Amino acid sequence: MLLFYQPEMQNSSIGKLHFLNEEDARHCVKVLRKNVQDKIHVVDGVGGIYECEIVKAHEKKCELKVLSAEQNFQKRNHFLHIAIAPTKNADRIEYFIEKCVEIGVDEITLIQTKHSERKHQKVERLEKIAISAMKQSLKAYLPKINELISIEKFFKNTECDNKFIGHLTQDSIPLKSAINQKSDYLIMIGPEGDFSKEEIEQARNAGFQVVTLGNSRLRTETAGVVACTIINSFF
């Protein structure tokens, strides 16, 4: 099954007409050679998946008719939010986005820390990568990607049942041992230079538990992918 993405299709009823965006329309008609009466599947990014019939095969405005709809497609029973410091090399944070969307993540926040080397990050580029990963991995949920925010502001605006910060100290425990049956999870991943001592203390005061992802020193993007994998594997 090959998926296309159209957020405006959310909660569409059977028989309703829609258009693919120009990029997907071109791929559908020019690359895949789809034509009138061919069937395709479209997701809306919030759990809906729709079987559609092509009624007008145009490379710029491919018109579809909804044949069937399913909501909450492959909905997971937990919510995962990863807050991560953007890497100096843009390719590495893009890799993190792609792999975590494929594995399963609901929200990603970019945080600016004391040791962050990147002060700006274009979210639009990351959103395109997330959309591509969602379609490739046959998912119907598109994670929310939040703009870069200071770590101080992030601490003030964070609510979650289970809050973790990745950092290796004498009292940190393995992440896999800290997971329980609660449904909401937030884990913070630091920059190449790690979190500062002050930031770790701020995290503790904000109710975060210090956890380790293992004995190896991991790159930022690798740590994010490992954390995503550990939490998802629990469920």
TrEMBL record:
It is found in: Cytoplasm. Gene3D superfamilies: 3.40.1280.10, Hypothetical PUA domain-like, domain 1. Signal peptide: none annotated. It catalyses: uridine(1498) in 16S rRNA + S-adenosyl-L-methionine = N(3)-methyluridine(1498) in 16S rRNA + S-adenosyl-L-homocysteine + H(+). One of its GO terms (molecular function) is methyltransferase activity. GO terms for biological process: methylation. It is an enzyme of class 2 (transferase). NCBIfam families: PRK11713.6-1, RsmE family RNA methyltransferase. Specifically methylates the N3 position of the uracil ring of uridine 1498 (m3U1498) in 16S rRNA. Acts on the fully assembled 30S ribosomal subunit. Belongs to the RNA methyltransferase RsmE family. This is Ribosomal RNA small subunit methyltransferase E. The gene is rsmE.
